[in-house]
Amino acid sequence: MAAIYFHIPFCKRLCGYCDFYRSVKLKYMPQVVEAMHAELAAQADFLHDKTIRTIYFGGGTPSLLAPSEIEGFIEKVRSLFDCSQLEEVTVEVNPDDITAEYVAELRKTSVNRISMGVQSLDDRCLQFMGRRHSAQQAVDAVQMLQGAGYDNISVDVIFGIPGFGLTELDDTLQKILAMGVQHISAYHLTIEENTRFGRMMAKGEFCEIDECSSVSHFSWVHNALVAGGFEHYEVSNYALKGYRSKHNSSYWQGVEYLGVGPGAHSFNGEVRRWCNQPIEEYIGGVEYGSEELSQTNKLNEYVMTSLRCAEGLSLAKVERDFGTKERARLEREASADGLRSLLINDNGYLRIAPENMLLSDFVIEALMAF
Ligand code: SF4
Fold it and tell me: How far is the CA of 125 from the centre of ligand 1 (A)?
């Protein structure tokens, strides 16, 4: 089974930390929507497996689309692919786009999962990050969606924000737990060069939190959410039982997916590919960059995605797909000084212990094949 991702690259305002591909040139929205419909139809053959299990609208801000436009994309998918086993259709929303009218219209579509960018429930923190909404708007938006019958809601939270300590973080986490959502994605703030925060940092106006605070913020999030009944199933993702993100899990399991829209990535088991951007170029004609994956690339992708997940890396799968030498290499390196204390070798699976997940990049890098 396969997945489809729609990248809606528009935002009303740019947040201080965000380096996703997005634009505030909303006047191009109708042209981009039209070009995306054409791209979807033209690229349907990219996927070998035409049975679609999940559809995801990400961005940018997909909730800038009218619900009828979202359903228009879903209908197009239904006309091109076998959707008899479609299980999950997610839309990312911003709290300030959520009104009673919007929710009522959205309920008429096939969307059955909502992912909301809450980030914090501290108004000072939201302002600092350049978010458009207030804490109350986020709480109200979740309640409106729940009131309309949405029972699979995910919220995003950011931690590790300079100037905001464990007291503010815990306050946000407790309020989010009280909302009764089913899934929480929690990300450590990272400062990228090409963002407002990056430029402030270059001028010395801003400093990332130190490593020790990073660890304590991460542990605080982990402990609070696990105590709240959530399973930590991927580095940045927590879910109540039965509510893992099927779409995002398929990326980590190497499932084929077609990404549509400016800057969107696709993968069909052999080729990884990405659409052109910016939007002015995309609407002028869709072009792709691509990379054919070698066996080494495929192994490294598996190391990277599997070790980010609670299930871990299957040594039997490595042996089956990449040979006994690679299995032996991974077992040898995993038991070397420096990694031994971070990894669990359990019943044929290598796993990073939850308390060490913050070091996952270090572990993954050390286990890569060259
Ligand atoms: S964080 Fe979301 S809303 Fe903010 S600029 Fe990035 S994509 Fe847009």
Answer: 15
Query: Which amino acid, residue 321?
Result: D
Grade residue 353 by pLDDT with cuts at 50, 70 and 90: confident
Residues 183 and 42 in one domain: yes
Q: What is the pLDDT of residues 297-347, one digit of tens each?
A: 999 999 999 999 999 999 999 999 999 999 999 999 999 988 999 999 999
Residue nearest to atom 5 of ligand 1 (CA): 14
Same structural domain, 94 and 215: yes
The answer, as to whether pTM is greater than 0.85, is yes
**Which residues, at least 6 apart from 71, have a Cβ–Cβ distance to it below 8 Å?**
108, 109, 110
- Using the atom order of ligand 1, give the atom closest to the CA of residue 11: 8
The residue whose CB lies within 8 Å of the most ligand 1 atoms, and thus the one to mutate among 8, 10, 11, is 11
For the domain that residue 243 is a member of, what is the CATH number? 3.20.20.70
Residue 158 is part of which domain span? 2-251
d(CA 76, CA 89): 14
Over residues 21-66, the pLDDT tens digits come to 899 999 999 999 999 999 999 999 999 878 999 999 999 999 999 9
Q: What is the rounded CA–CA span in Å between residue 257 and residue 273?
A: 10
**Ligand 1 pocket, residues with Cβ under 6 angstroms:** 11, 14-15, 18, 20, 22, 59-61, 94, 117
**How far does the centroid of ligand 1 lie from the alpha carbon of residue 117, in Å?**
8
- Let me know: does 344 contact 350? Beta carbons within 8 Å: yes
